[in-house]
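Review this fold:
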Amino acid sequence: MTKTEIAKAFSNAEFEKIYKFISDNAVWTVVEEGVFTGKQAIIDNCDQVSNYFNSVTTDFKTLNIIADGNKFAISGTAEFLRENKRVSFVSACDIYEFNDQDQIQTITSYCIQSK
């Protein structure tokens, strides 16, 4: 997978596809929610998020991908439905930095839930 594909897969919650591309000492900061330090902590949080996503119908839309060397930013939206009714709608931006081994070193996620 390319770095763009890895970042896009993570942003679209295709977590299991990219676990092998996460550095052992990576850090994922979800602004205003928490910081997950180390590959296992990131995987554990991804598994928890996946459990929620599996309980709803999800519609992810990627709006922009910006790349500059080892840094990537992906913005998009996510709509969550249950029984054809909107549960929530989120506008998000994930910023990725890869190390020299093409592994994710840092992720910073900004998620704004619609009212």
In short: The first strand starts at residue 22 and ends at 30. The mean pLDDT is 95. The helical segments are 3-11, 39-53.
